[in-house]
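Our preliminary data section would be incomplete without showing what the modeling component actually yields. Below, a chain of 233 amino acids is followed by its predicted structure, encoded as tokens that our downstream tools consume directly.
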Amino acid sequence: MNTEISMHARNRQPDAFDERLRKALAHDLRTPLGTIANYAAILEFHGSANTDDVHAFAGRIRLGAGRLATMLQQMSDALAISTSAARRQEVDLSGLLRAQLSALGLQGNYPASGHEPAAPVRFDAAILGFAWRAFLSVCNEAAPLAAFDLDIDIESTAAGTWIELWIGPRPGGVPLRIGLEQFAQTCSDTTQPLACFALGLAEALIERRGGSMELWGQPGAGASLRLGLARTG
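Predicted structure:
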């Protein structure tokens, strides 16, 4: 039995989530670590640094350490979801959205259309909450979320279920969907290492469960996050 498990582990090909974690460990986390080390070295060897310089470098070290801690927490949360059994349940979308807004200390005009989802929707609540948290953070970094309208759209077919969270004005006609890399280019330097990093983990998580993630628009103007899962059973 142990031999079978071992052989299965060796034969399993890395998926998008495995690759995203590898990239985070090999690259993403090295950036704030390198920044912290560089500023610490300046403080250590620059004997003539004045008080203002010391305060400035200490502040940058604190900022880098905070970013690193946030990224590690995001990785830990995503890893916990990825290793848990896939679980679809009836999700109160309005309740979940309000809970995420409250946890982040954010406000927004919801529901802007005046209509909330009429009934719970069967979906993976853990992945949905993780992705929404990252998306709300990205948009709020670009511009205070309190100034924007929020709405939820649901599309359910024989093939699967798609849930879309809209923030800000909607486009006329059919929106042009973009990938995460293109969406992240519109993020600020402050946002991208954190919330856009978490969005990358969310995309890998839902792909691991056989789903998809799409984005539209630009944070701080008008944007949407669309998550889909194929119907099972």
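Residues 2-83 form a domain with the Helix Hairpins fold (CATH 1.10.287). The beta strands are 89-91, 121-123, 150-156, 160-167, 212-218, 222-230. Preliminary results of this kind motivate Aim 1 of the renewal.
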